[in-house]
UniProtKB/TrEMBL annotation:
Cofactor: Zn(2+)
Protein residues bound to GTP: N126, K127, R128, D129, G181, A182, S183, G184, V185, G186, K187, S188, T189
HAMAP family associated with the record: GTPase_RsgA
This protein's record includes keyword Membrane: no
Sites where the protein binds Zn(2+): C265, C270, H272, C278
One of the record's GO cellular component terms: cytoplasm
Cofactor remark from the record: Binds 1 zinc ion per subunit.
Organism: Tepidimonas ignava
Subunit structure as annotated in this protein's UniProt entry: Monomer. Associates with 30S ribosomal subunit, binds 16S rRNA.
Known role: One of several proteins that assist in the late maturation steps of the functional core of the 30S ribosomal subunit. Helps release RbfA from mature subunits. May play a role in the assembly of ribosomal proteins into the subunit. Circularly permuted GTPase that catalyzes slow GTP hydrolysis, GTPase activity is stimulated by the 30S ribosomal subunit.
Membrane-crossing segments per the record: none
Protein name: Small ribosomal subunit biogenesis GTPase RsgA
Length: 313
């Protein structure tokens, strides 16, 4: 075969979006909406859900040949290491509920990871019908509202006149939103309300990718509108982001209530832990507005990130 004949018989590569992943199996959606099962060509083309990719047909499957530059990349925390979770997400919906009671530390970690990835966080408090637990949880979220976070009430699975879905919708429009939250907060209930056929779709994808129904680490990108402008990304069993790739010195800038006091420290390289003349420590309550618990969390996370930077430490 001549070189010329070879190039003309090579199938043209097309552009597409990774809409589902089950381990190394990927489903790519082409521009015309067609969905093709794809494999990465090599280590450098290991795409994740949300990625824009170039792919080439290969039999009735496809091969991913290139990954387009990512607008954002979120990582999940595994037992041992951080793994990529989703790319090109604009927003992370952190779902909390009246019950189970949420942990301030988990919430803070999620907010830090989102900000680090340049992804806007949106806090949603579900189960408004569960009282007085809901009102208590709403109160506990006051400090987060004070530092500028958006918090929306929701009652996605309860029978109340205003379930909060109408107020949530404008926040989802025109964006790709990843949903995360502890077990039992109502994530599946929310996904099923937003994407009525979600469960059936997931089963169909699972069949298309030839994986068993017990696969746990799968992520799915669902379009919320015909125009394919708004999407919701579901990753069942995903509870915590990985933080260990974050440089400890960046941490203060990722916590808005601490970041508010940066710039006034005596030392330019202040780590805001024990240095004299630290503007962050000077802002601690009762003299200032900064909650001592948040500063303690900052210190604990700083130490954790510093340890993670030393591979054998
Ligand atoms: N009272 C009340 N219960 C709700 C509400 N939303 C969801 N639930 C219930 O909470 C339970 C957990 O909901 P799921 O949607 O399965 O929660 P999940 O976050 O997907 O949980 P995992 O699958 O374990 O991660 C179910 O029994 C739901 O019916 C709500 O607004 N009010
Ligand atoms: Zn300082």
């Amino acid at each position: 075969m001549s070189a010329h004949a070879h190039t003309t018989t090579l199938p043209a590569s097309a552009c597409g979006r990774v809409v589902a992943s089950y381990g190394r199996h990927l489903l790519v959606e082409a521009d015309d909406g067609r969905r093709v099962r794809c494999h990465p060509r090599g280590k450098r083309t290991e795409a994740v859900v949300g990625d824009w990719v170039d792919w080439q047909p290969s039999g009735d499957e496809g091969v991913i040949t290139a990954i387009h530059p990512r607008r954002s990349l979120l990582r999940r925390q595994d037992e041992l290491r951080t793994k990529t979770l989703a790319a090109n997400v604009d927003q992370v919906l952190i779902m909390l509920a009246a019950e189970p009671v949420f942990s301030d530390e988990h919430l803070s970690r999620a907010l830090i990871a989102a900000r680090d990835a340049d992804v806007a966080p949106l806090i949603v408090l579900n189960k408004r019908d569960v009282q007085p637990a809901f009102d208590e949880a709403w109160q506990r979220l006051e400090p987060y509202r004070a530092m500028g976070e958006t918090v929306l009430p929701l009652c996605v699975g309860g029978a109340v006149p205003d379930d909060g879905m109408e107020a949530l919708w404008p926040h989802l429009q025109g964006r790709a939103t990843l949903v995360m939250g502890a077990s039992g907060v109502g994530k599946s209930t929310l996904i099923n309300r937003l994407v009525p056929g979600a469960q059936a779709q997931t089963q169909a994808i699972s069949r298309a990718l030839g994986t068993g129904r017990h696969t746990t680490t799968h992520t799915t990108w669902y379009w919320l509108d015909e125009a394919r402008r708004s999407a919701i990304v579901d990753s069942p069993g995903f509870h915590a982001f990985g933080l260990h790739h974050i440089e400890p010195r960046r941490l203060a800038s990722l916590m808005p209530d601490i970041a508010a006091h940066l710039g006034g420290c005596r030392f330019a390289n202040c780590t805001h832990r024990q240095e004299p003349g630290c503007a962050v420590r000077a802002a601690l309550a009762p003299q200032g507005p900064l909650s001592p618990r948040r500063w303690q969390l900052y210190q604990a996370l700083y130490d954790e990130l510093a340890r993670a930077q030393q591979p054998y430490g």
